[in-house]
Amino acid sequence: MTDAKTSAETRLLHLDRLNGAEHGAVHAPVHVSVPYGHPTCESLLGVFQGKKVGFTYARQTNPTNAALERKISMLEGAIDTVGFATGMAAITAMLFALLRAGDHIVVSRHIFGNTTSLLGSFTRFGVEVDYVDMTAAENVAAALRPDTKLVFVETIANPGTEVADLEAIGALCRERRVLYVVDNSLTTPAMIQPAKLGAGLVVSSLTKGFGGHGEAMGGALSDTGLFDWSAYPGIDPLYQTGDPAKWGLAQVRRKGLRDGGGTLRPDDAHKLAVGAETLFLRVERSSATALALASWLEARPEIKSVRYPGLSSHPQHERAKQLFGGNFGQLFSFSFLDEIDFASRLDRLKLIVLATHLWDSRTLAIPVAPTIYYEMGAEGRKAAGIDEGLVRISVGLERAEDLIADFEQAFVRA
Ligand SMILES: *Cc1c(COP(=O)(O)O)cnc(C)c1O
């Protein structure tokens, strides 16, 4: 029924069924078993030694997670995917499995705050991190060293919505044979497949757009098969067997997930898989609503500036148009005029929720400097391009006119 010409959107809806879910079921079942029994020692040993595909102990994966991982691989155009309890667990496991003291990495200056904080801990263990402005690939070229292990970037940065020069950085990494890691959480494979830009690994917080409903957490790391791991120092000889394209993720699965223990719960894997069934619809709807809201706010007298890649005023608008297939995502941010205290307006919102999260079904607002970027300090925020009065909006699935009416009453009554 499905072949190479069938769209990813359609294939996603039929993948469990066509992979043989029992009794004609259209969803993979939720497997709660911790141990997995084997009929013979040969089978048990084969799975333990990585010579046979199968299950042993639920920390390492289970059939429900495997069904989700298969869907993510299909959507990302990846050869394999490992699921994790959260996006941060995925990033931690990747860095933990692939880096050692003395390694050098190049990271975007515009990056998720908790990732910056995590990298600070890796610095403590002797990893050298250079932060550069990745909206221009030249900055990455200037920071690369012969011993650089990886380049890490996000597609659309949170909260400033900077769009990195993803394609040129991909070409550069390919030429220099450096591992290119792209965090696709805020765009999802419905907007962009980093594999097409040369990414070797794709990180995703499934908690965000992929699952989309704000009731389950998860993370994933996908290997696109583009990176030649035989050129990467630090892969244990134990995992240097078979196709070199698979060595890196084999090490992440063992050293990162098995030893780190950040396992995705099978009931959450199931919720995320159901959430993903409407991914493409949600991306279109939220992107259209975000554009309507951002345009409306940009014309308001109390607003100093609005940052949304869908606006022609955005510095990387043309790049975003070319990269993301006409959708610009559900995240935007804005600043009130300096004389307006954000709380005097935001406290009056009735529909829009004051909360931190992205890609929830409901629209959320948060002033970012005194909350999620509080620990960074004023100097760190300045370096990361985060204004003290910046308000981040995560657009949900409500109708645009209802959200505009909520902003309007909050602004007018003030
Ligand atoms: C939220 C987020 C993460 C972390 O994901 P969790 O599932 O919350 O752990 C990582 N990267 C980006 C870009 C994010 O937005």
Summarize the entry for a quick read.
By secondary structure, the protein is of the alpha/beta class. The protein is 39% helix and 14% strand.
Protein traits:
seven-stranded mixed sheet, 16 helices, 414 residues, alpha/beta, Aspartate Aminotransferase, domain 1, five-stranded mixed sheet, binds pyridoxal-5'-phosphate, 2 domains, single chain
CATH superfamily of the largest domain: Type I PLP-dependent aspartate aminotransferase-like (Major domain)
Please state the overall shape, judged from the principal axes of the Cα atoms.
globular
Largest sheet: 7 strands, mixed
Radius of gyration: 22 Å
Annotation, overall tally of beta strands = 12
- Number of separate helices: 16
Write down the secondary-structure element order: HHHEHEHEHEHEHEHEHHHEHEHEEHEH
- Assign the CATH class of the largest domain: Alpha Beta
CATH fold assignment of the largest domain: Aspartate Aminotransferase, domain 2
User: What is the mean pLDDT?
Assistant: 95
**Number of structurally distinct domains:** 2
CATH architecture of the largest domain: 3-Layer(aba) Sandwich
Q: Which band does the percent of strand residues land in?
A: 5-15%
The main sheet orders its strands as 1-7-6-5-4-2-3
